[in-house]
UniProtKB/TrEMBL annotation:
InterPro entries recorded: HAD-like_hydrolase_sf, HAD-like_sf, HAD-SF_hydro_IA, HAD_sf, PGP-like_dom2, PhnX-like
Protein name: Phosphonatase-like hydrolase
Entries under PANTHER family matching the protein: PHOSPHOGLYCOLATE PHOSPHATASE, PHOSPHONOACETALDEHYDE HYDROLASE
A Pfam family per the record: Hydrolase
Superkingdom of origin organism: Bacteria
Length: 224
C-alpha cells in the first residue's frame, strides 16, 4: 500500500518557466562561458544548485575550479532572488487536484527539491500553498548532507512521517536525477513526468517505472 508520494517542485508540481535554469545559465555565462539552456538542463536539472554548477563546468569546460563555482553560485543566488521577486509562478497543471485526491486516499504529499529551504519556501508562499493543508511536508537540499541522486531527502521525509519501508513510497520528478533518487531510495515506483527539464527520451534513459505527461496520470498507477 502506498503511503506517501514525494514530488519534485519546479517542472513537476510548479510551473516557473525554467527561471531557475535560465538564471543558472546567466550566472555561469557571466563568468565567461557560453552554455546553452539545453546544456544547463541536461547536466543541472534536479541537482542542488552548487553541485549543478560544478557538473556543468566539469562536463562542458573541463573546469573543476571550486572557487569559481562558488563565486558563480553566489551570483546565482542574488539573481534568482531578484527573478522570483518579479515573476509570476503557477501550479503545474492539475497539481492541487492531485494533492486533494491523494489526501482523500490517505496518501501523504511531500515536496522535495534541489533548492535551498529559503528558495523553496518563497516559491510555496508565492503560490499560496500551505504546509499541512495543500501538502504535508517539504524536504530541501539544505536539510540533508547528501543530495540527489542520493536518497537522503526521501529517507528524511519517510522518517518525518514514521514510514520505514520505501516500498510504500512513490517518487515523481521531471529529471533523470529525480528518477535515480527514487530508485536509490528503494521506492515502489520512480515516475518521470514530461512537463519540465528533461524530454521523454532523456527520462527513458534512467529506466523509470513509468513516464506520465500530466500529474493526474499518477492516480491509476497507484491503484495497480
Amino acid at each position: 500500500m502506498i503511503k506517501m508520494v514525494v514530488f519534485d517542485m519546479a517542472g513537476t508540481t510548479i510551473d516557473e518557466n525554467n527561471v531557475v535554469y535560465k538564471t543558472l545559465q546567466k550566472a555561469i555565462n557571466e563568468a565567461g562561458f557560453d552554455f546553452t539552456l539545453d546544456q544547463v538542463l541536461a547536466q543541472g536539472a534536479g541537482k542542488e544548485k552548487f553541485q549543478a554548477i560544478k557538473s556543468i563546468l566539469a562536463t562542458y569546460a573541463d573546469n573543476t575550479d571550486e572557487q569559481l563555482a562558488s563565486e558563480i553560485y553566489g551570483k546565482f543566488v542574488v539573481h534568482l532572488r531578484d527573478a522570483y521577486a518579479n515573476i509570476e509562478i503557477f501550479p503545474q497543471n492539475n497539481a492541487v487536484t492531485l494533492f486533494d485526491a491523494l489526501n482523500e486516499k490517505g496518501v501523504l504529499t511531500v515536496l522535495n527539491t534541489g533548492y535551498n529551504k529559503e528558495t523553496a519556501e518563497s516559491l510555496i508562499d508565492k503560490l499560496g500553498w500551505e504546509k499541512g493543508h495543500t501538502f504535508d511536508g517539504l524536504v530541501t537540499a539544505t536539510d540533508v548532507g547528501k543530495n540527489r541522486p542520493n536518497p537522503d531527502m526521501i529517507w528524511l521525509a519517510m522518517e518525518q512521517f514514521g514510514i520505514t519501508d520505501a516500498a510504500e513510497v512513490v517518487k515523481v520528478g521531471d529529471s533523470i536525477i529525480d528518477i535515480e533518487e527514487g530508485q536509490n531510495a528503494g521506492c515502489a515506483l520512480s515516475v518521470g513526468i514530461t512537463t519540465g527539464a528533461h524530454t521523454k527520451a532523456q527520462l527513458e534513459s534512467a529506466n523509470p517505472d513509468a513516464i506520465i505527461d500530466d500529474l493526474l496520470e499518477l492516480l491509476p498507477l497507484l491503484d495497480k
